Amino acid sequence: MSTATEPVDVHDPPRVTAQSWWQRDGAENAKRNLALMGVIAVLLIIGMVTAPDIFLDGKNLWNNELTVLTQASSIGVLTVGMTFVMISGGIDLSVGALLALASVWCTTVATQSYGAGAMIFAALVVGAVAGLVNGSLIAYGKLVPFIATLAMMLSARGLAQSISGSHTQINRDAFINGFALNKVAGIPIVVLIFLAVVAVGWVLLNRTTFGRRTIAIGGNAEAARLAGINVRLQTVALYALSGLCCGIAALIVVSQAQSGSNTHGDLYELNAIAAAIIGGTALTGGRGTIIGSLLGVLIFTQITNLFIINNLQLDLQRIINGGIIVVAVLIQQFRVTSFWRKPASS
Q: Which pTM value belongs to this model?
């Protein structure tokens, strides 16, 4: 006796196995951040082996890591602004020069004569206005971000040199200098400023329409425009934000060096870009996280710290940093290629 079998509908859609959160694309940032924290852990282990008197002593380790955070504070603030710009698909080569210009402008004798409030105001306004110029040239002048910010880098560095007369300007304001000298709950004020900027940047990127517009523009600027986003205005705002971060970083550097100089911020733009890339920010735009950029800054600063502690040549450090950047970009490229190949195999 034969048994009837149910007909098979060849048009039935294939059954999709439910994926856990960890397997989804949304977990990519969490995976990357955990990997970056693993790199930091490896660096700490290397420190324990090479400098046990520092890394195996609780008090010395705490003081050393506070030093790392202090050294990372100025570049870290720049990296927050750089992350927003890069997520939108742009680049800002002028951040180091704008830091120098803001530091010189806020430490002139005329500015210092009005007190700390005027110095803070000058640094923030100089950075933000220069950022507005960058954004306007890119959004309305149709200049490529690389060219516009390169021109600003040269102009700002030259203007800083002209204002200072190529001389270091001593900062005599005790309040500004206190950012680096004073602590709150055992933590230097410059570190607290850095962490505050990171926190505000995280909220701005992840919890506001400003952040969503930034990601949308970086993903597809034309689609964002058709969706009703004012791409030009958003671009200007992003570069103004980057410039504002330059002003904040300038105040940190002035407090640490107790001076303003046209040489401040040299190559900081490359460090900020590198840290953002290590943190997972895509050079093509549309993807990036503030936490990842923070971890990228800490990795580079921790490597520098290990080299200094072990009296190693900084030339080797630059080679290692370059290798890290190449590996990070290759990982990003592999991920993007794999993502676009998925539909073809289904």
A: 0.88
